[in-house]
Amino acid sequence: MARIRPRITVVPALATAAALLMCSCSAGAGKGAEGAKGGGATAAKSGQRLTVALGTAADSRGPAPAVSGARSGGTVKVANLNDYSHLDPQKVYAGEGYSTSLLWGRQLTQYQVVDGRPKLVGDLATDTGKSSDGGRTWTYRLKDGVAWEDGKPITSAHIKYGIERTFAPGFELGPTYWPEWLTDSEDRSAAVKKYGGPKDGDLKAIETPDDKTIVFRFPKPQSDVPYMAAQSSSSPVREDKDTGTGYDVRPFATGPYKIVEHKQNQSLTLERNPHWKAETDPIRHQYPERFEFTFGKKTLNTAQEVFNARGSGPDTVTTKDEVPPELYAEAARDPKKKELIVAGSRGAYTNDLYIKNSRVTDPEVRKAIHYLFPREQARQVLGGPRLGDFATTLSSPAVVGWKKYDLYPVKPTGDIEKAKEHLARAKTKVTTLTYAYESDAPEKDRLAQVLVDAFAKAGVKLVVKPLEKATFHNEVFRGPAPYDMWLSTNSVDWPTPATLLPDSFHSKLDALANSIRYANPEVDKELERIAGIGDAQQKADALIALERTVMKDVPVVPFLYTSVSQFRGANIGGAAIHPIYGSIAAASLYLKKS
Amino acid sequence: MAEEHSGRPSGPVSRGPFVTAVRAFRRDRTGMAALAVVLLCAVLALAAPLIAALYGKDATEHYGQNTPGLLSPEGLPVLPGGGISADHWFGIEPGLGRDVLAQLLYGMRTSLLVALASVAVIAVVGIVLGVTVGYLSGIADRAFTFVCNVLLAFPTLLLLLALGPVVETRFVDPGENEPVWMQFTVLILVFAAFGWVPLAMVLRTAVRSLREREFIEAARALGASRRHIVFRELLPNVWAPVLVHITLAVPGIVTAEAALSFLGVGIDEPVPDWGRMISRGSEVFYDDPTYMVFPGVAILVFVLAFNLLGDAVRDALDPRTAR
Hints:
The structure holds two protein chains of two kinds. By secondary structure, chain A is α+β, with helices and mostly antiparallel strands. Among the domains of chain A are: 53-71 and 106-248, Periplasmic binding protein-like II (D-Maltodextrin-Binding Protein, domain 2, 3-Layer(aba) Sandwich), CATH 3.40.190.10; 345-563, Dipeptide-binding Protein, Domain 3 (Dipeptide-binding Protein, domain 3, Roll). Helix content of chain A is 25%, strand content 19%. Chain A contains 17 helices and 20 strands. In chain A, a hairpin with a 4-residue loop joins β5 and β6. Chain B is an all-alpha fold. Chains A and B meet through α8, α11, α13 and β16 of A and α5, α8, α13 and α14 of B. Chain A: Residues 119-507 form the Solute-binding protein family domain. Chain A: Residues 225-244 are annotated as: Disordered. Chain A: GO terms for molecular function: peptide transmembrane transporter activity.
């Protein structure tokens, strides 16, 4: 179900700046009488919270629908604070990595984005896959004319080799779905015992009857194969070009650009790939001649250059970094600068207050926390509406089958009276709760104070524990986690609910997956039933229905459907947040003049 | 250096060196102004709860968040000048919306408490060690110099940065907040542990030159005990450098504490702290520069007053530097 949320925008007017104190008075953030509503045309289309549609074979034919006003040529400069941690397609496992690697890498399927609406279409394959045998067999046919950067055609064996690599040692970092699904294993370590990667020879579960056909045979029905086929780990790899760890620095290109040079943590230069044919590709464009990535410059400096059009600022864009909080309000106030902010939904990410269910066992107490939680104040202290919209559901609106529900409606500032009622109903009186957080930024300390304040109003002493990043992760996800609550940002691996409940809310999962130790036998049983469904839509509907059952127990308190605010130079066109990957989509950028 | 020949009249004009110093100090107008500011600060800090009660504001209450209309949805003060109004004279803090004036008053308490407690420990340790070692010399002196060199070479700031999380995880129960007294104690102990060295070294040199003077020789000839010589003969002659040193150490510690809080290893939320206010000010500098002004000016005035006071004390106690 598609749902369009208007972006909340505040346009503070320039209040009269009375010289109060040494000329350094602040203008104030009061709303002017004529506050313009809504963002620019780009902002409206950028990264809306829309669910993906499945495209047909006709949609999968290239070329990609042209970006209106786009022109060819020039060099786009991309300035990111950090280099991509991986370029090896089977190791990439982050939204920005997925999004940028589309420039040089192609997969079996991919998301075509037109006017901000995502549609899953065939990329190297002619369609999103044909299933048979109740979802146990999936067949893909490759398009004609798809080629590597040296002109050799891409064959089904290359796709198979790429997927075989996900079993090999050193590829633990990537998604584990191929190994688990193809061998019907609980987790990756069990899967690699059955097949250990290309060194073990041929993987029987994938058949390549000819150069154009690839057939996956799963022991159990798998409904989400079309989405998994869009993940970077479903990219082809040529065995003769597989340089092992070197492939992580410079992968061999199949997309519109090829990597000319990659100095790790310094720069990455891309040039047009002459063997890429636009008519085979329904997703990517090839407008600029070159992409020049630089890494290491502080985001604050980059953003100042971009917003003030200094140096190469107008031709610069980021594909990873957000508008620094120091500059945000100023940029949002100035209409010229505001245009350069590219904001949108951060894919299917949500931010929730996690409650450790094995410590806070009484649902009444968890309900009290739900009513207490000061969403408005918490978001305000973190930076305001640009962080996202208030959530009422566990899954993001970007997920297939999402329906809005609000089981325990509460106003965003919290409802202390309701919370007190539920606390009074608790079996044992709660006087103290603990809240743990990563103390890597001062706004998190302030957020903790907001929570302390809210809990104190209901008569609960909130103990706050600032932890080092490593300690936090060790204790919360691997250790005993002697804390009652923490905030957590999560996303499904692809925009269906298939990786949400089954991967985090089954009682048999370890603390890494089910960190809140949620355990409900009824939910476990239903999850096991749903695992056998082979149809993606049916499975999504069953999971979305189950989500309400889970949320009745209030295992977590939904906080935000998160958003991102990135920036682009004035000369950069086509910049929009990718609705699935949640960062500026590099493959549709162009230079307005060069 | 003023010297006192313990008990004996020191010249035809029978005026104690203390009285002389006080007179000299009272003639120094800058010094008097500095003293007035310092005393004002001390009174404000001591009476902070009273002033806050009269002013009607709490230092930790989130006014901006709990009263609609004070902060924008992004957490910036709606009114110009950082939210200055009849209710909030110095404006409100961006984000949490606490009252800046109340925060400043209580922040001064934090600064003064850390500085004065550290200086007290520094004075005691520095005097005892400096005077004793200066008098003893020999092996004790060599050991002392070595320890001093080690301590001077110690990366204090890095130690504090590393110590914070260790103390928190090692000594605090996971179900409890880190007690405020523990944060203060750690800071005071670290400042004191490294702060006594310069004082002790100055005293050691001073005492070494005094040791050979006639009045010490005389005391020794009369059979005075070591204890008597150190505490009765030597100590009264070194109080001037001690006084100068500690008045100059206070502003140093105040800025050091602010720097630590700026870096996030000083005193934690919700205890008001100037360093943390300045750090917050730097985050919102583009949008709300006013917020930086108040803690910045406060710390500037406070440190300047203490420095000028220290200078004035030195001038008054040391007639040779009379201008």
